């Protein structure tokens, strides 16, 4: 019996002996995608997998330090590692996720280790939920699944900004693909009222409306940061590569030119958040709450 009290469905008649020769399906978060921001675990899994499923962009990033072998075909294909053995590279795209999950299950059953690459962290608007939903849909309870965490845009952007997430924070996606605007707005109001630092994802969708909702519950002078392609340096795909702009909630929508697309996130501080400047630049700090240095 599972923890929810329901008996788990059968896994296609497979026995423990049948699964001894299975591989593992790894859902791998590669952070912003560049080698310096990947965990060692993520790099090891991608390097040693029999098959890697990744978008063209992530393939490009993963080849920068040899984590993936050199490109041998535009649409994926078999590549040769420096060790001499082969690795199959499969191109991922937004419209193929269901089919690719099915293919990954079959590859694992055939004994392959499969690395299904997700940007950022698989659990932060990544691919992990789809894999589990598909495993249930396809009765793939026999397939071993491991999630390999990665650095999210919120964490990468916060690192560039200093210490804006040092108190309670939340992330909210503005995508209306799975929920309507009213539900999104309700979450925004609740987060603002509760005093969370809020990091907005998918900001090319209704970010102006999101800012206006937050302004209903939060003062116009709280700091806001708009950041693009966090952790990607000069490899950024939006605007002028990796950028960040510090403004205020009241003036955020005046920086429309800084909101570039999927690589853009917006961080909205609280009444405790403040700018901090030294000889090297501007930062944002959200203190943990009423503490002094001697409290540490």
Layout of strands and helices, then pairs:
Elements lengths: L24 E5 L10 H9 L2 E4 L1 H7 L13 E5 L5 E6 L5 H13 L4 E5 L9 H10 L7 E4 L4 H9 E2 L5 E5 L7 H14 L2 E5 L5 H9 L7 E6 L14 E6 L15 E5 L5 E5 L2 E5 L11
Short synopsis of the structure:
The chain is an alpha/beta fold and 296 residues long.
N-to-C span: 46 Å
Give the structural class. alpha/beta
How would you characterize the largest beta sheet? 6 strands, mixed
- Which quaternary structure do these chains form? single chain
Beta-strand level of the residues, as a percent range?
15-25%
What is the ordering of alpha helices and beta strands? EHEHEEHEHEHEEHEHEEEEE
- Large-scale geometry: globular
Number of helices: 7
Overall strand count: 14
Strand order of the largest sheet: 3-4-2-5-1-6
What is the residue-averaged pLDDT? 88
Query: Helix content range of the residues, please?
Result: 10-25%
Radius of gyration in whole Å, from Cα? 21 Å
Uncertain regions: pLDDT < 50 for 5+ in a row? 1-11
Model description:
With 296 residues, the protein is an alpha/beta fold. Helix content is 24%, strand content 23%. It is built from seven helices and 14 strands. It has helices spanning 40-48, 56-62, 97-109, 128-137, 153-161, 181-194, 207-215, and strands spanning 25-29, 51-54, 76-80, 86-91, 114-118, 145-148, 162-163, 169-173, 197-201, 223-228, 243-248, 264-268, 274-278, 281-285. The strands form three sheets. The protein has a six-stranded mixed β-sheet with strand order 3-4-2-5-1-6, with helices on both faces. Strands 8-9-12-10-11 form a five-stranded mixed β-sheet, sandwiched between helices. A hairpin with a 5-residue loop joins β3 and β4 (86-91). α3 (97-109) packs across α4 (128-137). The longest helix is centred in the middle third of the chain and has 14 residues, at 181-194.
